[in-house]
Amino acid sequence: MEDVLRPLIVLGGTVVATVLAGLLIDRILRYSSDRHPATRLPGLLRRVQLPLQVLLGSAALHGTFPLAELDFEQDRVIRNLLAAVAIMSAAWLAIRAADAMAENTLQNYADRAADIARVRQLNTQLALVRRIVTAILALTTTAVAILLLFPDLRTLGTSLLASAGVIGVIAGVAAQSTLGNLMAGLQIAFGDSVKIGDTVVVEGEWGTVEEITLAFLTVRIWDDRRLTMPVSYFNSKPYENWSKGGPQITGTVFLHLDHSTPVSTLREHLRDYLRECPEWDHRNWNLLVTDSTPTNIVVRASMSARNADDVWTLRCAVREELVDWLGRNHPYALPKIPTGAAPGAELLVPAMSAAAGGYRRTGDT
């Protein structure tokens, strides 16, 4: 009877104790979060409850397993398995805790900072650093867990370390593109060329940088499509960054109008319309005739906005308003396309035919 009760009490008591300890820690974090709502960190750290439970349970079972006095040959294998689980759960816990602290740091900085560009830069840096730390911890803990579960591989690992130089050269040549993207990602993260949230124009597509990883950068296009490109592209080819230097931007609208257009009246109407438009930030505006051809004139209306989204809405609204206003009040100013022959054109064709060898009337053979 003791052979059954002793393992049951030891192992069952260990599991119950670790579960209670995890619940107690979670309750303390929740109490702290409710008591101090301005401090977000305790609430964010509640995300580590699951990996914490696994870590406490596996570590405690690894320590108390000999006390159960189970007599079978797989004792060492089970303890190695528990150690491997404890190591991997510790890495999982560290990743969750690092994510919570990074998010808390970003939120606190965003509350204090007035420059949104600095906030986006910090967000980009934290996101890339978290990915690097996650990749390193995952690779390291996986290797340690494999060596614990399969001790015979240690000899193989020693021989591999002896030839690490050759393997490193081969791996470097094979992963040249990947390493290039990795270095480009680090340059973007700690540089100031492009950040998460920036409005960019890439390959003729206008969108917002949504995600930056160690290898790829994702741009959310205005119609909700995603354009995924290697990060090395942004270090080797030109692109437009509308958010660099501040989110303010100036938009333009071009209209092709008739020479009889009352430009000064149109300019006054644009000024009155912009005063009532919420997207205009009151920094600057203008309306100029930028070109003239034998058939029409080119009128450019320019207006400023707080960001790229507002300037797109403002450009569309101004274009629609000016065309509608001209159609209602000055329809002669809209461009006209002739669909009939010009006066005297019927005399030009016989003259040309006669010069070419004589004019023949319709019906002549």
Description:
Helices cover about 60% and strands about 15% of the residues. It has 12 helices and 8 strands. The chain has helices at about 1-35, 40-45, 50-65, 75-110, 115-150, 155-160, 165-175, 175-190, 235, 265-275, 310-330, 345-355, and strands at about 200, 205-210, 215-220, 225-230, 240, 250-255, 280-290, 295-305. A hairpin with a 3-residue loop joins strand 2 and strand 3 (about 215-220). The longest helix is centred in the first third of the chain and has 38 residues, at about 75-110. The chain is elongated, with a radius of gyration of 36 Å. The termini are far apart.
Lay out the secondary structure.
Layout: H1 2-35, H2 41-45, H3 49-64, H4 75-112, H5 116-149, H6 153-162, H7 164-174, H8 176-190, E1 199-202, E2 205-212, E3 216-221, E4 226-230, H9 233-236, E5 240-241, E6 249-257, H10 263-275, E7 280-292, E8 297-305, H11 308-329, H12 345-355
Antiparallel strand pairs: 1-2, 1-5, 2-3, 3-4, 6-8, 7-8
Helix pairs in contact: 1-3, 3-4, 4-5, 5-8, 10-11
